[in-house]
Design goal:
This protein has 109 residues and is α+β, with helices and mostly antiparallel strands. The protein has 5 helices and 3 strands.
């Protein structure tokens, strides 16, 4: 049941990776052409390398990204554990599709 969700997410991730290309540039090249690499990072994986500082991946922050501070994250995790212990969980039904399961979860709340 949960295996279907994992396979769905795994296939989605691999499909996105296959569409992307990795571009590796030195920190000097990045500094000289920042605009170019910011634009490139919208559709490609951009890795910036530095002998003294290691490598970094340039990732654009999107509106759909969730940025959360440590305190809020810990509070959400504690609440999730409490809900689990109280039996407030969603279970995928036998033969239920991933889309059906997610739709049912959204409509239950």
């Amino acid at each position: 049941m949960c295996t279907n969700l994992v396979l769905y997410l795994k296939n989605d991730i691999f499909a996105k990776l296959n569409r992307m290309k990795m571009v590796v540039v030195s920190s000097r090249e990045f500094r000289a052409n920042q605009r170019k690499y910011f634009d490139l990072a919208l559709t490609n994986d951009v890795v910036i390398t530095s002998r003294s500082h290691g490598s970094y991946r340039l990732v654009p922050v999107r509106e759909s990204d969730t940025l959360i501070d440590q305190t809020t994250l810990e509070a959400k995790i504690r609440r999730g554990i409490e809900e689990y212990e109280q039996g407030k969980v969603h279970r995928m039904e036998e033969g239920e599709s991933v889309d059906g399961f997610l739709s049912r979860m959204i409509n239950e709340d």
